[in-house]
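Filed under: proteins

Residues; backbone shape codes:
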Amino acid sequence: MSTTAVAPLTIEDAELLVATARRAAEDAGVTVSVTVLDAGGHLLAFRRDDRAVLISGETSTRKAYTALQLNAPTADLVDAVQPGGLFHTLPTALDRPLLFIAGGLPVHRDGRLIGAIGVGGGAPEQDHGFATAAVQALA
């Protein structure tokens, strides 16, 4: 059996993700915080603008962590954590709180999960758009 190595998410990739999300937010007149994690959940890049709401940094980090742990966009998980949803009890089952608000996206390369980005500070739909623009720039 042979294994094909997949290039990991690099610092340069992380910086591109942050810069693209920030630029998209600035173009929309929004101030955001951006967090990028590698596949192991380690912080690769973080940016919090002093004009952003203070909690936006924690929000972006939790969105990235959620997208990484569940390998899914956080926007797609909102219904799953509602009473009766598939993940209703999941947030209390993990050692780090998850955040089910749009703005967190997993990052893939060659079909494999290599990290995640979280954007916080705008409306959830805006944050999702900023994160999406960043991931598309990396492709």
Observations:
- Residues 62 and 99 are 6 Å apart (CA to CA).
